[in-house]
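Support request, please re-run this one:
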Amino acid sequence: MARSVLTTLRPALLLTLILMVITGLAYPLAITGVAQLLFPHQANGSLIENGQGQTIGSALIGQDFSNTDYFWGRPSVNNYDAMASGGSSLGPTSKKLHDEVAARAAALRQASGLPADAVVPAELVTASASGLDPDISPAAANFQVPRIAKARDLPETTLYSLIKQQTSGRTLGILGEPRVNVLQLNRALDALTGS
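Re-run finished. Output below.
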């Protein structure tokens, strides 16, 4: 009886072991190797380095730029903490969400020297679903030009040109919308001014 149980279980145990090696070890190693070979930058997190070779961020994760002489990205409900990615889960009828957006809009108007009733881009006052969106639209970047031009004593036309240079088009020409990576834009801004 014990021999027949072992005979019955042996193929199941062997198959389980083989599948564990294939799906738990061989497949992940093969995919990692292919990714490292074909797409090393993306496979390693799309990291961005400064001129000294130090990692300063990722093209995939937004950062907090709050100085008036930099472009600002979308707000984050988790202070750009990649370990706590997520939105606020507040619905459109939430008073708390309404108050947060109103406070962000007021702060943006004040920093930009705009009147209290000036229209601001929605993406600059609302967080993305992940809370880590690294991109803004060209229109949101253009909205910030007068503030940055004044803070850096640069002609606005220079900044509009910089935004245009840093704008990525639709993926494959049809997916998504044109966008500007805020970290890359601010790096280009620093390079332009020698900061």
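The mean pLDDT is 87. The chain has two domains: 2-40, 47-193.
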